[in-house]
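Structure, all two chains, one model.
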Amino acid sequence: MILHPTVIANLLASLTVSGMILYSAYYGLQIVRHWDLSSGSELQLTLERRTYLISTILSYVFGLELLSLFLYVFTADSLCPLFVGAMCAAGTLNVNGFGYPALLLKMFDFFLAGLWLILNHADNQAWDYPLIRKKYLLLVVIAPFIVGEMVLQCAYFLKMKANVITSCCGSLFSSERVEGLGSEIAALSPQTMLWMFYVSVAVTIVAGIHFYLRQRGGYLFSALAIITFFVSIVAIISVISLYIYELPTHHCPFCVLQKEYHYVGYLLYLALFGALVSGGGVSALIPFRTIESLRTVIPALVRKLALASVVLYSLFTATVTYRIAVSHLIM
Amino acid sequence: MSNRSRREFLRRLTAAAALAPILIADLQAAPERPVITKKDRCPVCGMFVYKYPKWVAEIVLADGSYYFYDGVKDMFKHYFDVPKFTRGKSADQIREIYVTDYYEVELIDARSAFYVIGSDVLGPMGHELLPFKDRESAQEFLQDHHGQTIVRFGEVTRKLVYSLDRRS
């Protein structure tokens, strides 16, 4: 293990989040099984009081979970000078077999945590706890993933050894390597990928504006927002990175997080993940719009979410387009 | 100051004044060496080269463009595939190649250097070819750091360079 302040912060955050979520999931399970608003039993009164505590805890804990994705990547990036061969987070995450699985699980948990916060926000707007069973059922589903993430993250940081020669992102995301998803993405045709990216973003933004104005096609917009997220990630590796680095062979999705590139990666990924969660949140809420106490809440909330997703995708695309426009890369 | 030493002082001053224009002209005639800035990146791996001054290698092309590398290994990767890493350029444009002598930490001509491979000294990109200006220092390094062999510039092959990436 490497005793670096950021490593300790990561471990503390991950232990706090999983501890709190296990505690909440325990009561969540009780709520799922025994909740009965019409009953005046002692158990029901206890659960009603406790749901306020749990909902408050989870708002903070899931907020921490969202932040911790960026903390994790920041940590990997700041530890890279300690490992021979690493020049950014890509190399540091490769020092043992747990770095990348932990990152992927963190990204998945980020999405789930965002959805839970959206459901919770909608539920808190109504007087009769209309989504209480659903949101605690979701919590029970999320809990194992959060614990899994904690285990992977602990394994990654505790098994970190400074004498490992890791691979630089130049070879992990090289179009010439035969194996590895990063290399397969890097080998895609940059021009085709750039077109796919712009078409995908344009269609999503149009669908989002249509939904915002007419309140129709919510599921379609939501699906498009999720698809565009993956297309954008592939586009970052395949082509956007080339323009940012101004090197025809450098496909790394992590170097953009560095000071030398003005930390533009944080802006790109914040916009992208924000757009994913708000876009995905639309289809998570639409099924509940017929519930009486949410009849006015949900339409307003999903419109706001769609607008947020559209704005964030526009911000992402504008930043990318600006970087492409000022790039000196000769393709 | 005695008369004699004053005369001596004046004589030296005159000599220096006479030499000065020659020296200045000489300085102006010397080609300008490219200086590493904080923006220079290795065209092969993308690393910022200023962070690794002891490992710098450099290629200067006939059109005046130049590239810095964070190790000899990446310099050779570029040398073997110039158009791949720098579109529109070719290997026959290469005019000068420099590497940093591991002991002296100064740029030396890469074509006349001696390279030690297989040693326990790692560069920023892992296993490296460590350059030395003469065979004696390369031999000394090889013995001190468990090196495997000494190779010359012309003996370095693409296969050898890429095999350094695969060592653990």
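DSSP finds eleven helices and no strands in chain A.
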